# Entry
Amino acid sequence: MRGNDLKQAWQRMYTMIGKEENPFRDRIVETFSEDGLGNLSFNDFVDMFSALCETSPRELKTIYAFKIYDFNRDSFICKEDLRKTLNKLTKGDLTPEEVTLVCDKSIEEADLDGDSKLSFSDFENMISKAPDFLSNFHVRI
Amino acid sequence: MPPKRKSNISINIEDVGMEVDASDSGSEVEARRKAKNRRAKPQRKAKRVSDDDDEDEEEEDEDQSPRKRGRKKKAKPRDSEDDEDEEEDNRNVKRKSSKASRKKAKDESDEESEDEREKKKKGASKKDKEESNKEKGKGKGKQGKDVGAEKDKKKKKNRKLSSSFEEEEEEEEKSDEESLSEGEMAALKEEVEEKKKLIATLRNKPWRMKRRLTLLKEAQDFVEKFEGALGKGKGRKLFAFKVMMAKKLIKFKRDFENFKTACIPWERKIKDVESHFGSSVASYFIFLRWMYGLNMVLLGLMFGLVVVPEVLMGLPYGSIPRKTVPREEQATAMDYSVLSDFEGYFKYSILFYGYYNNERQIGLLKFRLPLSYLLVGVGIFGYSLMVVIRTMARNANEGGDGGDEGDFTFSWKMFTSWDYLIGNSETADNKYASITTSFKESIVDEQMNQKDENIHLRRFLRVLANVLILLCLGGSGYLIYYVVKRSQVFANMNKDDLTWMEKNEVEFVMSLLGLVCPPLFEAIAELEDYHPRIALKWQLGRIFALFLGNLYTFLFALFDEVNAKEFVKLTVSDIQVTYLTILVGDFLRAVIVRFLNYCWCWDLEAGFPSYGEFDISGNVLGLIFNQGMIWMGAFYAPGLVGLNILRLLSSMYFQCWAVMCTNVPHERVFKASGSNNFYMGLLLLVLFLSLLPVVYTIMTLSPSFDCGPFSGQEKMYDVVMETIDQDLPAFIGNIFLYATNPGLIMPAVLLMVLALYYLNAVSKGYQQANIDLKKKMQMARDEEKNRRNNKDSTNQVMKDLEDLLPNKSLIPPAAEEEPPPPDVVVDKGSRSPKVKPGAAGKGVHLQRDVSLAAPNPRDPVTRDLGPRRGPPGNAMGPQPGPGKGRGGGRGGGRGGGRGRGGPPRP
# Structure
């Protein structure tokens, strides 16, 4: 089924679960859709909620979080991905220098293998220590 | 049908003893086999702890030790080759079936050793059955065996999840269900329970929806089919109930948390401010809230023990002179100007010390008001000291100067700060603001860390700045001293000769200094170029020193006649000045900048006046000095505490509003987690300073003779002595007498000093240990960073998820590698310290995944398997390296079939 057909329904769903305001809403939908374009099959849709629900395990959430933040889908979170993430988070309020600083620092903190981009294991290592990842990365339906 | 058969069997057993075997049907044989199988199992387990039912090995075993083979074979009846053998045998034996039965009875004793014969025996039984049941029976027998084997496998935790397999199995089970033995029932039950558990927990499993659906369907089918055989699911209701209760509990906990948060006063307001202005501005409001809490307790003490009893039980207004406005003042006693000076009716009210009577006991309850008054006055200080010090200690525990909250400051902010629950646009805006603010705070910290500078120049500038500020302070101190001196001279002159300027000189100079100095200090502090957080502390300290001059003038120019009225007046004027400043300095300015900007020649918003920033240091110090005033004045004016509560309450709302709508965030928003303790330190200092005069008056001055609860006493503390003498038993008086003996006090003081010294030493030791631990952690982290080959995920769930991984190369493609020789393997194992000790035991949920396992050792194993097996615990020892971990995990009993063998032995 095409996303267009159900756009309205989805829209209502989003409002209900509070995705309206999420800066990553497009990324979430793209990540969970099998074609990567944001068209969700019913299974994808249910998948999305099961991953984001309160009881789903940290590992699953980590994987989807990684996918969400990996904008260009190259299996690494590179500086460009970070820049996009940051701009979405701050609505572009930071100056370019500040953005560069933050991106560099983030990579420096989490990058264990020194390739100046975050692989999944780097990401997992970092996220597994984050105190409020689980409490923030879920929705209530 | 089967029951019948069973009865037959029993008869047969009775009649022919061992002949049973021969005359039995296929399914019966199966059942017996199972029984034997069960018997054989423990042995097998003991011998081959981790080994699997690998056919090849099985064959080897058969060849090597034919004696064992019989049992073994029964234990592993599933092997297709065995089956084929049997078929062949059957065919062969068919011909000599009549012989076989007789032979069997004869050879019974050496049955176990004679492999051939056993086969024949079986063949005979098969044949018999065939004769009676034709083809069907045979099929059944075979299938039954299959099922048995399947069970066997299951028990060894080699679960097969492919649907086709299971369907087949189910069919077989169905057809053969009735012939299940006890053991099988148990196994089946276990299986069903497992499936049920799977259904219940499927939601939490880290699988994609497709896989979940398949699994769910299978499990449901399975359970549906077999539950009939095992009796309808007991405990299902209980389980559902448990799940429901768990959910309810979670929800309740969540609601309770929300409720708790909602109970914290102004939490939302402060969070709003924090998200837009940063934690530094929020720290002021948190301090204000804390102060409000403290004052609520003081209010409770003062009103509960002094004011309300006096109102309820004391003499009413007008009964005695001290409670009545004098006749000559009565005409103007209700005038606004008089009241605003706290004269007139206000002066003769419960607000002030003078109103209280010195009657020892009042009312029906015989409430000792003077005693209560004194104890509350002292108790307020005691409580405040305790609370301030306790809060400081707690803040110190939370520790740090802020800033170091982990190794992942930025990446955590980046990836985990957005709350996916937010659905409200206003909340979302706040969240955006708070994320931006927190990023900015961290950026400021980081920039400060990165800055490299000319250290000598910086030092010179800092010294210069301090000299300048000391000059300022000295100058202003002298100015105050000079003005106070002059005012004392003026005080002796006739009031009518003085000009307005001369009359209010002290106040004028004080306010001028208060107005000019803080911005001057701030300007000078620019030279120092400290981190804003440290700069704030310096600024606070300097302005504090300046205001101490204020305190000095207040204490020494007015101190000779302690007038409670002054405290109240001062507090009220302070409130007025603060609010007016906000209205004019912030609100009016904001309005002008906002609306005049449309018709102005330069950009007012970006240019000169701009909007105001929130003045943290000024507000904090205002609050602190105000509190000092309350502490000092509360003894002489009980109503002051109530007034202060009103002030704090209104200023919380007013300032929150003002900051949100008229101020802009600081240019450099900075994090201020530690400065709260700095506020507390200043507060403690002020508390001591205000404690001194009050205690001094209580201990040395004699109270006025005509008003107040202590009138007529020599000293205020005489009420305590009086109570001890008159109302308490004599021995308590003695105790007090001893306690006040210098001979006892001196050792007590000494003891306290020693305890202080000891505790100080201990805390130093802990601090050192803390620093060491921090260093170690940092080192460990660096080491981790340096380790390049630790990319293997050893987390079991992670492995389940591998088809989801964004990058499959994460787990090295072990299947493509040649199985390395054992020594290499061991070497590798020692290099992967991340292997979890319990990982091997968790193999239960492992799927068979050939691609990750080492290639199957096809070579014949020609010697005993002992050394390879090892105890289960061995799995945590040196293990085959990444990717081969599963193959090597046989020790934990997870090995399950082909392709699971370890690397071949040379």
